[in-house]
Write a structure and sequence with these properties.
Layout lengths: L18 H21 L5 H8 L3 H7 L3 H24 L4 H18 L1 H8 L6 H23 L9 H12 L7 H15 L16 H8 L7
Protein name: Transcriptional regulator, TetR family
Organism: Klenkia taihuensis
Keywords: DNA-binding, Transcription, Transcription regulation
Length: 223
């Protein structure tokens, strides 16, 4: 008898998989992670199949809807973002917590366009991803309140402002332009800070017109 492994994609009642089916599922998930990170969630299943080395029909059999694949890929990633926001909100130094979350969040979204889209848009994935996304807003709100009570964050800022700022900076440059994103996180933080004796020195990095264009159409990684 063939050994079986429990299925874990969009249908919780799915039958256990044979070894070969489980191998195909793992290859599809690995390929989708790569493709969605580089191209976003609207990338074609044919591209996922090509990278996985399987037929496109195999992708559709395992994940009949795009939301099934999103759920399987991003549940843990969304949970990790929530955990990071909660950790930042619990930091005894509220400004350090906020600064760390902005830097980390911008880099996480720059590295994975799919994750950025999941965090920004409802309707991506099923209940488990939606549940994680619903827990993120209160966690970021708690981070904001913590910093405001300490008198380090301007009082007219909301958690949504922080989310939008992270999403905007995450679109700057390609995955390898962390130094450029650091420049804009620094500018954002200076705008958020309630009191500062002088502007924070900006990272010295060359900025070109391509960097402006990528905010509209983010850089795609080479295949």
């Amino acid at each position: 008898m063939s050994s079986v492994t429990p299925a874990a994609d969009g249908d919780p009642a799915a039958r256990p998989l044979r070894k070969d089916a489980e191998r195909n599922r793992a290859r599809i998930l690995a390929a989708a992670r790569e493709v969605f990170a580089a191209q976003g969630l609207d990338a074609g299943f044919d591209e996922v199949a090509r990278v996985a080395g399987v037929g496109v029909g195999t992708v559709y059999r395992r994940f009949p809807e795009r939301r099934d694949l999103v759920e399987a890929l991003f549940q843990e990633e969304v949970d990790a973002v929530v955990a990071r926001a909660e950790e930042a909100a619990a930091d005894p130094d509220p400004w350090r917590g906020l600064v760390g979350f902005l830097h980390w969040g911008a880099e996480a979204q720059a590295a994975d366009r799919g994750l950025a889209q999941v965090l920004a848009a409802a309707g991506r994935g099923h209940e488990r991803v939606a549940s994680g996304r619903d827990r993120l807003a209160p966690a970021v709100d708690a981070l904001v309140r913590h910093a405001q009570r300490a008198g380090v964050l301007r009082p007219d800022v909301s958690g949504l402002d922080i989310g939008i700022a992270v999403a905007m900076v995450g679109r700057v440059g390609g995955p390898d332009r962390a130094r450029l994103r650091e420049r804009y996180v620094t500018l954002v933080l200076d705008g958020l800070c309630l009191r500062r004796d002088a502007p924070t020195p900006l990272p010295q990095v060359a900025v070109g017109e391509d960097d402006l264009a990528c905010v509209v159409e983010p850089v795609r990684r080479p295949r």
